[in-house]
């Protein structure tokens, strides 16, 4: 069996595990923390949004709050996903024959998919859309696809 790396992630933390063989336990090799991923939107922004005027003057009928194209909490999650994908890509380049399994909360899995390279995607042998970042390695191992866990 080719060794497998398992990435377990959600918006505030990520853990990398190594699986050497079919009978071996998961061994945690790295942990990443993103404390801002737990923050509420109001805690991440220090200001109220600005106001826009629609050209009808300065009365209240033509004025409305400006909305950012992406919320601050979504930006924090997106930046964390990019960081993890860059790190995973470096690992893939160092060991190109390694297989990968990605276990992430459904929303965060979508962010990861958006940022991984086609070469990294080709190494992925399984995905699990569950938020299990806090579980112990044995519980995580039980959730891995049969193609990996056997």
Quick take:
The chain has helices at 41-44, 72-94, 106-115, 118-123, 137-143, 146-149; strands spanning 4-10, 13-19, 27-33, 51-53, 63-65, 99-104, 124-129.
In terms of topology, how is this protein built?
Blueprint: E1 4-10, E2 13-19, E3 27-33, H1 41-44, E4 51-53, E5 63-65, H2 72-94, E6 99-104, H3 106-115, H4 118-123, E7 124-129, H5 137-143, H6 146-149
Parallel strand pairs: 1-6, 6-7
Antiparallel strand pairs: 1-2, 2-3, 4-5
Describe the structure.
The structure is a single chain. This protein is of the alpha/beta class and 150 residues long. The protein has helices spanning 41-44, 72-94, 106-115, 118-123, 137-143, 146-149, and strands spanning 4-10, 13-19, 27-33, 51-53, 63-65, 99-104, 124-129. It has one domain: 2-Layer Sandwich (Nucleotidyltransferase, domain 5), CATH 3.30.420.60. It is built from 6 helices and 7 strands, in the order βββαββαβααβαα. It has a 5-stranded mixed β-sheet. It has a two-stranded antiparallel sheet with strand order 4-5. A hairpin with a 2-residue loop joins strand 1 (4-10) and strand 2. The longest helix has 23 residues, at 72-94. Residues 40-44 have low confidence and may be disordered.
């Amino acid at each position: 069996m080719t060794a497998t790396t398992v990435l377990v992630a959600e918006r505030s933390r990520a853990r990398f595990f190594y699986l050497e063989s079919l009978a071996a336990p998961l061994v945690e090799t790295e942990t990443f923390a993103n404390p801002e991923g737990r923050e509420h939107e109001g805690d991440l922004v220090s200001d109220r949004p600005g106001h826009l005027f629609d050209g009808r003057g300065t009365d209240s009928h033509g004025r409305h709050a400006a909305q950012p194209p992406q919320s601050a909490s979504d930006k924090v999650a997106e930046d964390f996903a990019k960081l993890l994908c860059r790190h995973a890509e470096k690992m893939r380049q160092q060991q190109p024959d390694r297989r990968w399994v990605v276990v992430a909360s459904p929303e965060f899995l979508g962010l990861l998919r958006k940022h991984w390279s086609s070469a990294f995607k080709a190494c992925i042998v399984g995905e699990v859309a569950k938020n299990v970042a806090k579980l112990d390695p044995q519980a995580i191992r039980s959730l891995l696809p049969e193609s990996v866990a056997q």
